[in-house]
Amino acid sequence: MRELPAETTPPVPTPKATSAAPPTTSTVPLVAPNTSESSITISASEFCALVHTFQTLTTTHSAFFQKMAEMHAHQD
């Protein structure tokens, strides 16, 4: 029985690290700077409700102006 030659693959070079420093992150102040405007604190559920209301208003606004554009196009 004849032996088949073993396939050899060339070694893959290992990339060298260019820096051992950890990745930098931007620093965000823990407290907002003082301004002349007042601020409020709301709960997460209130925030979610406001986001939902905003999305509904945006959709309604888009549909309303689409209808207005269609009506305007029919008048011409």
Automatic annotation (TrEMBL):
It comes from the Eukaryota. Residues 1-32 are annotated as: Disordered. Residues 15-32 have a biased composition (Low complexity). This is VQ domain-containing protein.
